[in-house]
Amino acid sequence: GIVNITPDSFSGDGLFKKENKLSKLLDFAERNNISNLDIGCASSKPGYENVSTQEELNRLNYFLSNVNGNFSLSIDTSNPIVAELALKNNFKILNDINGFQDEELITKAIEYQCNVIIVHRHPESKHLHEKMNFRNNVKEVLEHLEQKVTQLIDKGINKQNIFIDPGLGFGKFEQDSVDLLMNIKDLVDEIPVVVGYSRKKFIQKTEMNNKEIFEHCINSGVAFVRLHLTN
């Protein structure tokens, strides 16, 4: 379940300083046996503005002060200082949409022996939403992810702690994201796959409803599907 502790998000569900709404969302997750929550404290929508480390920490502390229930938590951040605060507070997964380009972030993952989600980012992209061209989108994304997995293992991260995410909607044209989603089984092998398509524009091109896309992912062997919670 996706929980955005921001005043803004691409899906309009930011929960920063909205205690009642956050409480209802967490209650909804508990009632529906949604035990894994991915907490993001900085927006990654197109045209987003970077927030300061202190602001991202403030938002995470806000969540920590208001969380209830017995959840397994992941932190969606590229900031090693924010990651450390989360990991010190029993977060078990570090999810980096920038594909672990920051050496200090890798060091934190090794120090806390947490699980990591490597989100695909084209190695030549200058920023997160720069649209990159692919000759063979599925093959190249898989190759990029395999290279990153090897790099992280070489640096000291346990292979059993690694998940991969094709980064649908990040640095890709809509058709590339559609192709990756429709062929997601081609990414499924030894490393568990995480997929996040919820509320992204490109899913309209799949001509499938949310239930059909979810079932397609599960039937393809995807380990986790990241979804926005609806109460």
TrEMBL record:
E.C. numbers: 2.5.1.15
Claim: Nucleotide-binding is one of the keywords in the record: no
Cofactor(s) needed by this chain: Mg(2+)
Gene Ontology molecular function, alphabetical: dihydropteroate synthase activity; metal ion binding
Pathway: Cofactor biosynthesis; tetrahydrofolate biosynthesis; 7,8-dihydrofolate from 2-amino-4-hydroxy-6-hydroxymethyl-7,8-dihydropteridine diphosphate and 4-aminobenzoate: step 1/2
Domain of life: Bacteria
Keywords in alphabetical order: Folate biosynthesis, Magnesium, Metal-binding, Transferase
One Pfam family this sequence matches: Pterin_bind
Enzyme class: transferase
Residues covered by the Pterin-binding domain: 1-231
GO-annotated biological processes: folic acid biosynthetic process; tetrahydrofolate biosynthetic process
Keyword Transmembrane part of the UniProt annotation: no
A cellular-component GO term for this protein: cytosol
Annotated catalysed reactions: (7,8-dihydropterin-6-yl)methyl diphosphate + 4-aminobenzoate = 7,8-dihydropteroate + diphosphate
Family (UniProt): Belongs to the DHPS family.
Protein's recorded name: dihydropteroate synthase
